[in-house]
Amino acid sequence: MLWLIVTISAYLILAIVFLVDKFLLTGPIPNPKIYTFYIGILGIFVLFIAPFINFYIPTIEQIILSLLAGALFIYGVFWLNKALKNYEPSRVIPAIGGLVPLFTFGWVYIFGKESLSFLESIAFISLVFGTFLITFKKEKFINLKSFQISAITAFIFSLSFVLSKYVYLQQSFWNGFIWIRIGGVLMALGFLLTQEVKKGLFEIKMGFQKRTAGIFLLNQAMGAGANILQNWAIALAPLAFVPIINALQGIQYAVLFIFATFLSLKFPQFLKEEISRKILIQKLFAILLIGLGLALLALR
Question: In this structure, are residues 180 and 167 in contact, taking their beta carbons and an 8 Å threshold?
Answer without folding.
Answer: yes
